[in-house]
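cron nightly-structures :: item 1 of 1
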Amino acid sequence: VQLQASGGGLVQAGGSLRLSCAASGRTFSNYVMGWFRQAPGKEREFVAAISLSEWNTVYADSVKGRFTISRASARNTVYLQINSLKPEDTAVYYCAARRDTMQSAPELYNAWGQGTLVTVSS
């Protein structure tokens, strides 16, 4: 599966963005989808994942209550709604795909998008 992330940008603290990740090449509904982020000088970290059925989601503690992951199977797209942005949310955000169960370890994901930059100003 090929992934294309978009929707990043520059936003003030407290603002919102919606990131999108469009999938192509394979049956989208066969893949668990995840979002990760990588800040400058830091390792890539898990943000959120959504199951095949879209009814189950999991979030990193740092984003719970502010971020929402969803998927639109008809559009082969997964979204990440990010609200109440903080400067520490500044990072390149990546979408990723894997089979079977939701996981938080990036090495367990097989396909990656190119990343979209989110910059939050204070």
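cron nightly-structures :: done
The radius of gyration is 13 Å.
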